[in-house]
Amino acid sequence: MSDSDPAIKHEPPEEVFGLLGNRLRVDILRALAGGDTPVVFSTLRGRVEERDSGRFNYHLRKLVGTFVRETDAGYELTLAGLRVVGALVAGTYTADATLSETEIDDPCPECETAPITASYADDVARLACPHCEEWQLAFTFPPGTLDQYATAELPDALDRWLRTLFEQLTAGFCDNCAGRLDSEFATDGDSPQLVWRCDRCGSRSRTAAATPFVFHPAVQGFLYDHGIDPTATSSWRLLSSESIEYDPKESSVGVTYHVGETSIRGQVGADGSVWDIERSDRK
Ligand SMILES: [Zn+2]
Ligand SMILES: [Zn+2]
Asked: How far is the CA of 126 from the centre of ligand 1 (A)?
């Protein structure tokens, strides 16, 4: 670290997480997440309905400095506190959601024969084609969010979630810990893929190499101009189109998207950057 790096204080994790092993403390964090902050002592105590002021004060003091910030105007969550509450409501540590295989109203992008199915278990959403058994997609989805949607709303919600995941990965942030991502091409499959790696938390994600290209504004505009509304077409359909062609080069992958007689091409770098975009209908 150089002198100009932002100073970050790291507390031992076992001590920090140990602070949460108490129901009242978790209630205090939840109470600080709802409504206006900062919250004064008496209001906060009222929100968690703790009659014993001494006991309340003891547990609140334990949280100050890590999950709770004390200001002149009262108490508020720190970023770490917000994250803990976020993880609690997302159900990351507490919920155990499942969804048995459900047909969704979208034909398989590979064989176009059967509707694809969605299922959910162990925090992973899976989309698959029961007909050709070739096409499938799996990605993590917060369990607590799953039951905020009716089954009919789920395909759209999963699609929007995937788009935000793609955006985050392409921007270079780990979707698990917000750490800095490294990426590289993998060419062991049918088509080249980008592997996004976070060395800080160990998270790994794979997307089609075309992903940064397909979601580039120039390509979205091209598709729109040629009668494909990219916002009304599922991301998995846009990405698994038979009309995408790959041309792996030394340190980049050329991607061409054909629509009828026209096409758009560009280069994708291993860091997800896109350049040399050319449309065949605009010479
Ligand atoms: Zn299929
Ligand atoms: Zn990470």
From this structure: 14
pLDDT at position 276? 97
Tally the C-alpha atoms within 13 A of residue 207's C-alpha that lie toward its C-beta: 27
Q: How far apart, in whole angstroms, are the C-alpha atoms of residue 120 and residue 126? A: 6
* 165 Cα to the center of ligand 1, angstroms: 24
Which ligand approaches the C-alpha of residue 200 most closely? 2
Q: What CA–CA distance (Å, rounded) separates 39 from 166? A: 37
**What pLDDT was estimated at residue 228?**
93
> pLDDT-derived band of residue 9, with 50, 70 and 90 as boundaries?
low
Distance of CA 107 from the midpoint of ligand 1 (Å): 8
Sketch out the chain's domains with CATH numbers.
Answer: 13-90 (1.10.10.10), 175-283 (no CATH)
Across the chain, how many H-helices and E-strands are there? 10, 13
Neighbours of 4 (CB within 10 A): 5
Task: Answer left, alpha or beta for residue 185, where phi above 0 means left and psi between -120 and 50 means alpha.
Answer: beta
Q: Which pTM value belongs to this model? A: 0.80
